[in-house]
Amino acid sequence: MERGKMAEAESLETAAEHERILREIESTDTACIGPTLRSVYDGEEHGRFMEKLETRIRNHDREIEKMCNFHYQGFVDSITELLKVRGEAQKLKNQVTDTNRKLQHEGKELVIAMEELKQCRLQQRNISATVDKLMLCLPVLEMYSKLRDQMKTKRHYPALKTLEHLEHTYLPQVSHYRFCKVMVDNIPKLREEIKDVSMSDLKDFLESIRKHSDKIGETAMKQAQQQRNLDNIVLQQPRIGSKRKSKKDAYIIFDTEIESTSPKSEQDSGILDVEDEEDDEEVPGAQDLVDFSPVYRCLHIYSVLGARETFENYYRKQRRKQARLVLQPPSNMHETLDGYRKYFNQIVGFFVVEDHILHTTQGLVNRAYIDELWEMALSKTIAALRTHSSYCSDPNLVLDLKNLIVLFADTLQVYGFPVNQLFDMLLEIRDQYSETLLKKWAGIFRNILDSDNYSPIPVTSEEMYKKVVGQFPFQDIELEKQPFPKKFPFSEFVPKVYNQIKEFIYACLKFSEDLHLSSTEVDDMIRKSTNLLLTRTLSNSLQNVIKRKNIGLTELVQIIINTTHLEKSCKYLEEFITNITNVLPETVHTTKLYGTTTFKDARHAAEEEIYTNLNQKIDQFLQLADYDWMTGDLGNKASDYLVDLIAFLRSTFAVFTHLPGKVAQTACMSACKHLATSLMQLLLEAEVRQLTLGALQQFNLDVRECEQFARSGPVPGFQEDTLQLAFIDLRQLLDLFIQWDWSTYLADYGQPNCKYLRVNPVTALTLLEKISREMKDTSRKNNMFAQFRKNERDKQKLIDTVAKQLRGLISSHHS
């Protein structure tokens, strides 16, 4: 029974499960029914399930049949209505087909028009797109065309700016076109082309300024000269309402013409030099001679291209090379002033250009670079001037060179260059100028002295007198009182030399102008140069004249007179220098003129030459002496040569009346002493080995003639018998032998008041031996075969005894 219950329970469970599955099949989508059916077949009761399913199907069929029976009449009615609608639908279909056919026939033209309209709209859209693309491309093409035009017209900086706009603004908008790619590929080439062309322009510019440096410098120096002249006028006569603009005001800012951001115009780079406001004529500036636009363009182009440093280095390197060429002076520069002028013009032109570049560009050149170039130029210029100026021997050329150097220095100083070394070098050239002046004045003095007649200047009228006095400061009240004609004591070379000294002072003063020296320095320079002129040049000229072989005593006398007057004029030269330098001679460290010493030395040399000349004349007369030392005849008059000599001396000393008394006295005493010495030498010369007492008597007559001349006082101022003392040695010697007073001589020898104090034992012995030889020779001839006569033997013994005693005196004196 329990088994039955269990089977019944299982059956109920199975029936409930099958019911669930059936509900699930009814409610589930057909696509998802698979798992449900799988669960049926997985179980063991699928047969019973099939029975259940058949039962359920039959139930549903019965329900469908019931429903159809209920709705059958409505279905029949609907079918009837549907058959009626089919007929009407066929009629409607026919009408629609007919209408469609008519519509198709009628709308065929419209379709064609619409098709045409479609094509037009397509073309219009394409055209609009094309126009849009062209609007993007046209600016690119226009910019490229503009670039080409700018390249063709050599407007390279605007071309570079155009290239930048093209590359960064326009080309990126149309970069997908092939022609744009070609342009992009061509841009580096265009940049290089612009770079190369601008560099070529720069090279042409450098060549241009090299060629125009001379003209630029000439113009700048002319302007500096005009400025200096105007400044001098202002100093002399102040101008009202006129102002000279400085060099810094001479620059006019360049007008910009490039439509881009170019800082400098490529068309206008001139510099105008502003003249005085009241001047109507415009003087072109030195920089107007060169077009600076190439260097500006090249600078801007290289700056834009990022190669500014390369450009600066290249420019500076090339300019340094040009500087070295400019600073190399021509080998013949020293021959003419034009050589120096061209040299200076080139240097000034070079630095005017560099100064202009410095002030009109930003950093292309800087002050350090300019200063470096100037230091090099200054050292080379000074070295060249030292070398070439040393060859110059013309003072006028040296003076012109100095003025040119001053103008050169002033010109560059205006542009801010230090020129102190140039002025220091001018002080060196000043010494050379003084030397050339001294050489020139040596020739002038030589011509004056050679052409002078060495005669007092005659004047026949008051006009001539004033003319001479106007040329030379001379005052003599006694001469003024004398009637015309009359004579100045000095010859023509005195006023000529005096005036030439003043001309020399003027020449020295000319060199000191514009050297920025103080009055004291100028005064010192003039005085030192004048001292050199007096102590060296004039002194040498006077010495050369005095030492000439053919100069006469008259000329020497006139030279002494002339130098005396020139010596007196030195104070007037002092005053002359003081007047032109405004430096009082009492000022500390003021150099004094040595003219007094110069003229004293010349006068002393002339005096010595007079003494020497007189002695030479005396010697010439003595050469005419023809003594017969063996004569036995006693003469009664002086020798002819001596008479002529005395007459010459009298006439000569008569000319000495204008000489200072001491000079004439010294000349006269010197002549007498030389005459006495020469006569003594004539008497004692070794060639005369024998002489007779008769010859000694004749010699004594000649000496008496000389003593008579001395007593006559040929030159005033001697004390009594002073001039005769020149012949005292001869007189005592002759008296000793003629009077044969050996006992007195030997007895009184060495006594301060002895009669024959001036007779030297050696001289006496020499003359005694000559007489002894003559006596011995005469005795041998007269007594060839016999003994000496007694008196002759006694005299010979006396001579031997005296000679022996004289030798003893000589020996004792030497011991």
UniProtKB/TrEMBL annotation:
Gene: EXOC6B
Residue span(s) of domain Exocyst complex subunit EXOC6/Sec15 C-terminal: 421-770
Annotated region described as Disordered, given as residue ranges: 260-280
GO cellular component terms given for this protein: exocyst; plasma membrane
Lineage: Eukaryota, Metazoa, Chordata, Craniata, Vertebrata
Gene Ontology biological-process entries: Golgi to plasma membrane transport; intracellular protein transport; vesicle tethering involved in exocytosis
InterPro entries the UniProt entry points to: EXOC6/Sec15, EXOC6/Sec15_C, EXOC6/Sec15_C_dom1, EXOC6_Sec15_N, EXOC6PINT-1/Sec15/Tip20_C_dom2
Family note: Belongs to the SEC15 family.
Name the record gives this protein: Exocyst complex component
UniProt KW keywords: Coiled coil, Exocytosis, Protein transport, Transport
Keyword Transport appears in the UniProt entry: yes
Summary of the function given for this chain in its UniProt record: Component of the exocyst complex involved in the docking of exocytic vesicles with fusion sites on the plasma membrane.
Exocyst complex component EXOC6/Sec15 N-terminal domain sequence ranges: 52-221
Coiled-coil ranges per UniProt: 82-109
